[in-house]
Amino acid sequence: MPVYKDNNKKGSWFVSCYYKDYVGHKKQKVKRGFTTKKEAQSWERDFLEHYSNQPTILFKALVDVYLEDYKAKYKLSSYYVKEKNIQSHILPYFGETKINNITPNMVRDWLNNLQAKQGNTLSTETKNGILRNLSAILSYACKYYGLGSNPCKLVDALKDNTKKEKIFLTLEQYKAFRSNITDIRDKVIFDLLFFAGLRRGELMALTFGDVDMDNKLLHISKTKGYAAGSYVTTPPKTTTSNRVVTLPGFLIDEIKEYKEHCLDTDAKTSLFSIGKASIEYKKDKYLKLAGLPYMRIHDFRHSHVALLVELGENPLLIANRLGHSDIKMTLNTYAHLYPNKQKELAQKLENL
């Protein structure tokens, strides 16, 4: 085995070996600083197993390569969410298993145990999301490590028989919510959420330069999320999330008033400099004062869509305003808001 004494450092060993990466390129790896030959050999075995490109690789070694590849392709915030999901819910069960020994029955047993163990804290939607993460890892193994088939493909997702309706505020309810806000910054924050349909990360990433006062436009080109102990600003969720949204005149006037209270209004300066916890705290406070039930920040986005539907706007315009990549996403998510519009259409035809 290519393990050698390090002549430059007495009592030290090093590894020098060749391997092929996941696309088949031959590379050399040198690792120094081992105190014993056995320690160096153990490290080399683990490393070569990492890049063995064989379905006998341990699942935990496959995850390391998969996450390394994922990190190079996707947003850092998305990477940390996926890593935490895998570390918490998947690795404890499959980590020491060779990937070619993972069967549909094992996956089903894991999913059922996950359901029982985490039943009080994880929704069915979340559990199915964890299953999709496992499936993505094993599909990666099929592509790059010679795994014959993905056992997750034979496992049914969990069924959720509870009827869930999206929560949203009507315009009158939002007016009641807003009537308790005296701080101009808070007014601008929640008006942007309700009247522009921004995602929380998009709101937090806004800078003064993103607001075109003259043309009443808001440029959405980035998002901010919490990852690895700090906030990071990255490109938006999808290509179509990079968009320009028109704002009503009263909201532009509010932003102008708010800007007058700010010391630094440079184009690259954050518009709000506020974190997730602060937005949540303010949202909960104003909901309580208005006597309204709990809702998430993302539900303001649903409220915006409900308002646009009530105003009679067409789904394509709504999809573009939200930054959806496909109008089907908009229709599938908000179809329940349209029944009354069908009745109105029928009445219009009746009146012809």
Low-confidence stretches: none
Work out the helix count: 15
Number of strands: 8
Helix/strand order: EEEHHHHHHHHHEEEEEHHHHHH
Helical content, roughly?
40-55%
Output the strand order for the largest sheet.
1-2-3
Q: How would a crystallographer describe the biggest sheet?
A: 3 strands, antiparallel
Q: Kindly name the structural category.
A: mainly alpha
Termini separation (Å)? Answer: 87 Å
Write the layout of secondary structure elements.
Elements: E1 3-5, E2 13-20, E3 26-34, H1 37-50, H2 59-73, H3 76-89, H4 91-94, H5 104-117, H6 124-144, H7 171-178, H8 184-196, H9 200-205, E4 211-212, E5 217-220, E6 223-227, E7 230-234, E8 243-246, H10 249-260, H11 276-290, H12 298-310, H13 315-322, H14 327-334, H15 339-350
Antiparallel strand pairs: 1-2, 2-3, 4-5, 5-8, 6-7
Description:
Residues 57-142 form the Core-binding (CB) domain. Keywords: DNA integration, DNA recombination, DNA-binding. Pfam families: Arm-DNA-bind_4 (PF14657), Phage_int_SAM_3 (PF14659), Phage_integrase (PF00589). Residues 164-347 form the Tyr recombinase domain. With 352 residues, the chain is mainly α. 50% of the residues lie in helices and 11% in strands. The protein folds into three domains: 3-50, no CATH class; 59-154, Tyrosine recombinase, N-terminal domain (DNA polymerase, domain 1), CATH 1.10.150.130; 171-347, Intergrase catalytic core (hpI Integrase, Chain A, Orthogonal Bundle), CATH 1.10.443.10. It contains 15 helices and eight strands. A hairpin with a 2-residue loop joins strand 6 (223-227) and strand 7 (230-234). Helix 2 (59-73) runs antiparallel to helix 3 (76-89) and helix 7 crosses helix 11 (276-290). The longest helix is centred in the middle third of the chain and has 21 residues, at 124-144. It starts with a strand and ends with a helix.
